[in-house]
């Protein structure tokens, strides 16, 4: 059973920072890509940032220069460092991981963590 457990969400003032973590557990061979998505009320889930197994990253235009995605392969954990947060960053943030199983690659989602940016 593969699980993704997110942590680090919360309430922060505009201009503040938060760090999200996503810990992957279970019997897997490796993790291909790890990504963070977010869904605001009334909107579709959208990609925030993604990182490949070799460290190549890609970001949504709205977060470039403010957010940084990293991963620790030994700990099977991904991170999203969020700086200069804005009210429009308020959303539920979901971690996604594409992992290598004996049966082939498969994607998994975390349960989501709420990030609220408000004064």
In brief, what are we looking at here?
This protein is mostly beta strands and 119 residues long. It has strands spanning 3-7, 10-12, 18-25, 30-39, 46-51, 57-59, 67-72, 77-82, 91-101, 104-109, 113-117.
The major sheet is characterized as: 7 strands, mixed
Mean model confidence by pLDDT: 96
Beta-strand share of residues: over 45%
Derived structural class: mainly beta
Share of helix among residues?
A: under 10%
User: What is the gyration radius calculated from CA atoms?
Assistant: 14 Å
Low-pLDDT residue spans: none
Pattern of helices and strands:
EEEEEEEEEEE
- Termini, distance in Å? 40 Å
Query: With helices defined by DSSP (H or I, 4 residues minimum), what is the helix count?
Result: 0
Please report the total strand number as a whole number: 11
Overall form = elongated
Fold and architecture overview:
- The chain is mainly β and 119 residues long.
- The chain contains no helices and eleven strands.
- It has strands spanning 3-7, 10-12, 18-25, 30-39, 46-51, 57-59, 67-72, 77-82, 91-101, 104-109, 113-117.
- Strands 2, 4, 5, 6, 9, 10 and 11 form a seven-stranded mixed beta sheet that branches. A four-stranded antiparallel beta sheet has the order 1-3-8-7, with no helix packed on it.
- A hairpin with a 5-residue loop joins strand 5 (46-51) and strand 6.
- The radius of gyration is 14 Å and the shape is elongated.
């Amino acid at each position: 059973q593969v699980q993704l457990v997110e942590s680090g969400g919360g309430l922060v003032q505009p201009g503040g920072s938060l760090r999200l973590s996503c810990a992957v557990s279970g019997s897997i061979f490796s993790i291909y890509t790890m990504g963070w998505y977010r869904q605001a009320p009334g909107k579709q889930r959208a990609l925030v940032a993604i990182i490949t197994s070799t460290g190549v990253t890609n970001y949504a235009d709205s977060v470039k220069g403010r957010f940084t995605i990293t991963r620790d392969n030994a700990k099977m954990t991904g991170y999203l460092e969020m700086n200069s947060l804005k009210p429009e960053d308020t959303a539920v943030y979901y971690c996604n991981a594409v992992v290598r199983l004996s049966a082939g690659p498969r994607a998994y989602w975390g349960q989501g963590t709420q990030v609220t940016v408000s004064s």
